Amino acid sequence: MAGKPWFEEKGLRFECTQCGDCCTGAPGFVWVNQEEIEAIAKAISVDVDEFEKKYVRKIGIRKSLVEFPNGDCVFFDTEKRNCSVYEARPRQCRTWPWWNSNINSEKAWEETKEACPGCGKGKLFTAEHILNQAAIIRI
Ligand code: SF4
Ligand code: SF4
């Protein structure tokens, strides 16, 4: 984002309602690097090679967690409606909704609000915090 972001003065609000929509539904990708693969494998006490075979798919040169056939993330607990590896969840999940693609314009943010009921509500985050989060992973 060149120059000051459009939300510089007011910041943006977000508070997860735990609806689970971002972990479920339409097929997508949950990108993971080696460090994240190792962290999740450790969290569920699975050997890294076995973890990769079972839970990771290669997309070009990148790697993503696999999904259930309905598009839900393989680590989404459908009964509890939450992430079963929450403490070890990857950067992509940790930094939501502060992705460049969501915040690079007011229009993009409005669209993100339509997809995620927690966006635009609840806790206020400063532009500095948001930009720091967005810099963690380029999505
Ligand atoms: S879609 Fe938004 S509100 Fe729903 S679980 Fe995901 S982050 Fe939380
Ligand atoms: S790893 Fe957890 S937070 Fe990330 S998409 Fe899967 S279930 Fe959701």
Features:
139 residues; alpha+beta; two-stranded antiparallel ribbon; 6 helices; globular; binds iron/sulfur cluster
Task: Explain what this protein looks like in three dimensions.
The protein has one domain. The mean pLDDT is 95. With 139 residues, the chain is an alpha+beta fold. It is built from 6 helices and 6 strands. The strands form 3 sheets. The protein has a two-stranded antiparallel ribbon with strand order 1-6. A two-stranded antiparallel sheet has the order 2-3. The protein is globular and about 50 Å long. Strand 2 and strand 3 form a beta hairpin. The protein is 32% helix and 16% strand. The structure holds iron/sulfur cluster (SF4) (2 copies). The site of one iron/sulfur cluster (SF4) has 9 residues, from loops.
Instruction: Write down the domain tally.
Output: 1
Q: Stretches where pLDDT falls below 50 for ≥5 residues?
A: none
What share of the residues lie within helices? 25-40%
Shape: globular
Largest sheet: 2 strands, antiparallel
Please give the number of β-strands.
6
The ordered string of helix (H) and strand (E) elements is EHHEEEEHHHEH
Q: What integer value in Å does the Rg equal?
A: 16 Å
**Class from helix and strand fractions:** alpha+beta
- Strand fraction equals 15-25%
How far the N terminus sits from the C terminus, by CA atoms, comes to 13 Å
What is the average of the pLDDT values?
95
Distinct ligands? iron/sulfur cluster
In short:
The two termini are 13 Å apart. The chain contains six helices and six strands; from the N terminus they run βααββββαααβα.
